[in-house]
Design a protein that fits this description.
- With 225 residues, the protein is mostly helical.
- The chain has two domains: 1-88, no CATH class; 90-225, no CATH class.
- Helix content is 79%, strand content 0%.
- The protein has helices spanning 2-13, 17-35, 39-52, 54-61, 68-87, 90-93, 97-120, 130-159, 168-192, 199-211, 217-224.
- α2 (17-35) packs antiparallel against α3 (39-52), α2 (17-35) packs parallel to α5 and α7 (97-120) packs across α9.
- The chain starts with a helix and ends with a helix.
- 29% of the residues are buried.
Amino acid sequence: MYMKILTHLREMRRQSWPVRLIWLMLGFEFGLALFERQWPLAGVAFLTFALTLVPIYASSRIQIRLPTSLMVAMTAFIFATIFLGEAFDFYNRFWWWDIALHGSSALGFGLVGFLFVFMMFEGDSYAAPRWAMALIAFSFAVSIGAIWEIFEFGMDQIFGTNMQKSGLTDTMGDLIVDVIGASLGALAGWAYLFGRGPGFTRDMFNDFISKNRRRFKKFRLRRKT
C-alpha cells in the first residue's frame, strides 16, 4: 500500500506545469472556501481535484503512459466542467460553454476510445478491421457522454447545481453534440490508420505509441516492413 502511494505521488510530480497550475488554483480555492465557510464551494473544489487524479490512477493501474497533451486536456476539461462551470457559473454566463465542453469531450473520448481499441489489438488491422476500431471508439465516446448526463442529473439532485438547465431539452442537445464529437474522434482514428488525419491527432497517436511501445508490437513491426 505504501509503495502504491509513493508511485502515485511520483506520477503527480511528473505532470506538466499546466496540470500543476490547475491543482494550485484548486488548492487555493479550497483553502479560501474553508476559511470563509463556503462549504459547497470547498466541496466542488475538492471533487474537481479528486477527479483530475483519476486518469493518473487509472493509467498507473493498467500500466500505460498518457501523452502530456492528453493529460493536460483531460485535466483542463474536468476543471472547466466541474469548477468553472459550477463554482463560477460559466454555464449561465456563457450560453456556448456547455456545448463547447460536450463537443470537445466527445471528440476527446472518441480519440481515447480509438487509442485503447488500437492498443488491444496491438495496432493489427488484420485482427480488427479499421472500420470496427472506429465503430468501437465511437460507441465508447457516446457511452461516456450518456454516463456524464447521469452524473449531471446526480449533481443537480444531490448538490442542488444546475448542470442540466432545461432538463430533457438540454440532455438531448448534449447527446446530439456528443454523437457529432464522437464521430469526428472516431473518424480521426480511422484516418490515422491510413496515414492521414489532422496533424495534432497524428502527433498524439504517435506519442502514445512511443510511450507504450510494448503494447504495439504488431503495429511497429508492420511499419518496419
